[in-house]
Amino acid sequence: MFVKQLLPAVLAIGSAAAQTCTVSTTTVNSQAEATKLASCRTVKGSVVVGPLAGANIDISGPREITGDFSVLDNGILETFSSSSLTTVGGSFTMRNVTKLSSLSFSSLTSVRALSWQSVTNLNTFTLGPLSKADEVTISDTFLDALDGIDLAKVNKFDINNNRRLKKFTTKLASLSDNLNIQANGIGLEISLPNLIWIANMTIANVTKFQVPSLKVVNGSARFDSNYFESFAAPNLTHTESGDISFVGNGALNNMTFPKLTSIGGGLLIANNTGLDKVTYFSQLTDVGGAIKLRGNFTEVDFPKLNIVKGAFDVSSTGDITKSCETLQKAAPSAQGGDGRVEGTFSCTSNNDKANEDTNGQTSDSGNVDTGSGDKSSAAGLSFNAALLGLAAVAALASAL
Ligand SMILES: *[C@@H]1O[C@H](CO)[C@@H](O)[C@H](O)[C@H]1NC(C)=O
Ligand SMILES: *[C@@H]1O[C@H](CO)[C@@H](O)[C@H](O)[C@H]1NC(C)=O
Ligand SMILES: *[C@@H]1O[C@H](CO)[C@@H](O)[C@H](O)[C@H]1NC(C)=O
Ligand SMILES: *[C@@H]1O[C@H](CO)[C@@H](O)[C@H](O)[C@H]1NC(C)=O
Ligand SMILES: *[C@@H]1O[C@H](CO)[C@@H](O)[C@H](O)[C@H]1NC(C)=O
Ligand SMILES: *[C@@H]1O[C@H](CO)[C@@H](O)[C@H](O)[C@H]1NC(C)=O
Ligand SMILES: *[C@@H]1O[C@H](CO)[C@@H](O)[C@H](O)[C@H]1NC(C)=O
Ligand SMILES: *[C@@H]1O[C@H](CO)[C@@H](O)[C@H](O)[C@H]1NC(C)=O
Q1: Ligand 3 pocket: which of 171, 197, 213, 283 to mutate (most atoms <8 Å of CB)?
Q2: Looking at residue 273, what DSSP letter applies?
Q3: How does DSSP classify residue 283?
Q4: Compositional bias (Polar residues) spans (predicted)?
Q5: 293-306 in b/e burial notation, b at 16+ Cβ within 10 A?
Q6: In the chain, N or C terminus with fewer CB closer than 10 Å?
Q7: Closest residue CA from atom 10 of ligand 4
Q8: Ligand 7, from 231, 256, 259: best to mutate by most atoms within 8 Å of Cβ?
Q9: Cα(225) to centroid of ligand 6, in Å?
Q10: Ligand 2 surroundings by CB, under 6 angstroms
């Protein structure tokens, strides 16, 4: 596995002055071995802190590790620090490091990836702060804040199972792959005041979620089992290719999407049992996938809808016959509408089981309750109903 280099041989190369020490992978097995790295300005290669290295390890001296820096399966380390390290060229990984409670890398500003998983006792850390990273994963820690992480842009950000985490505010402006936040502390408040564009996000178990500047979602935005009562994306104009979905957000009773004009994929709103209407998409004209709505609605309205490439499929526990009557005007011509909806149109009331259907698959039943509607003529219509768009499925899969 790890190739252990003899540190003295490495250090024999240069003087005590700033130098580059070349190793492929060096394993630090004690504080004495860590201290031997002090004269290296740059460690060219990877550094592993061995599982029996001791309770307190300080690696001060080096400013850069060009490869990876890792601590794995370590049940002894309690404090871990470096006052000098600014850059890790590879991944700064800690996994299954169960006694570590304090980490201080006060100069560290740049890593390719930061991955801390099952660092179950870690309750505080200091970083440079970290301002440059492609990927950050923080999972299963005892942290109540992530203050040392201050990135303006990142590819992937994954924060999960940090049971004490109550607040996360970041100046993040753009994220090019996926933001995943789930199963953290109850009451978690997320604030992304500067976020303007994001590829995908999967947000679950969050109490507050603020994205006042968000303009574009390139991929999909998915909100599951959150505790917020309202959701606002006041500046969101469109999703380029993915879905917007809200599933099982039991307290949700209000949404704000005043500028949203198009959704590249589908729209799924299901089992948000406190949501009694869906009248929040006043500017929405184009939907590239399907619209599927399930809930306790009494009113559903999409006043500007111009084109829905997939199905339009609404079912409520309540009576929405009046809404269905208006909505049906957009149904395919075969269902008596003007064809703005290209897939099957279905709109039904008084469905006790409406909240049980939370998947992305739309119904192809073509049922319509408009009071005056003829259900039987619609029921024979079979359309190969669009899935909401594969992105939602992919995001769900990656969250499992
Ligand atoms: C975690 O590390 C401990 C040693 O501290 C080891 O005994 C245990 O098997 C590791 N757990 C996993 C899941 O790898
Ligand atoms: C957290 O969200 C997930 C969905 O991603 C859900 O299955 C789970 O029940 C939620 N946990 C709590 C405690 O709400
Ligand atoms: C919302 O978008 C407008 C127009 O692009 C911009 O002027 C405004 O600053 C944005 N608001 C926020 C809070 O970012
Ligand atoms: C995402 O959208 C932004 C703004 O529309 C664009 O500049 C960027 O290239 C897109 N990125 C991807 C990965 O599609
Ligand atoms: C994120 O969004 C992009 C499009 O911007 C898509 O190609 C990619 O598959 C998505 N990734 C995940 C994990 O959903
Ligand atoms: C609907 O959401 C509630 C929580 O609000 C949850 O307990 C229930 O299991 C969800 N039902 C389905 C079918 O997902
Ligand atoms: C819903 O939210 C909007 C803006 O956030 C607010 O103006 C409105 O009063 C809210 N409506 C209800 C019923 O809470
Ligand atoms: C929503 O519908 C469920 C049945 O799916 C019902 O148990 C619940 O009382 C309803 N909630 C509200 C607020 O109407």
Answers
A1: 213
A2: T
A3: T
A4: 345-373
A5: bbbbbeebebeebe
A6: C
A7: 218
A8: 256
A9: 8
A10: 182-183, 204-205, 224-225
* Ligand 4 close to Cβ of residue 200 (< 6 A): no
Q: Which atom of ligand 7 is nearest to the CA of 232?
A: 5
Q: Answer whether 17's CB lies under 8 Å from 38's CB.
A: no
Overall size of the chain counted in residues: 400
* Residue of the CA atom closest to atom 2 of ligand 4: 218
Which residue type, as a one-letter code, is found at position 24?
A: S
Alpha-carbon gap, residue 134 to 155, rounded angstroms: 5
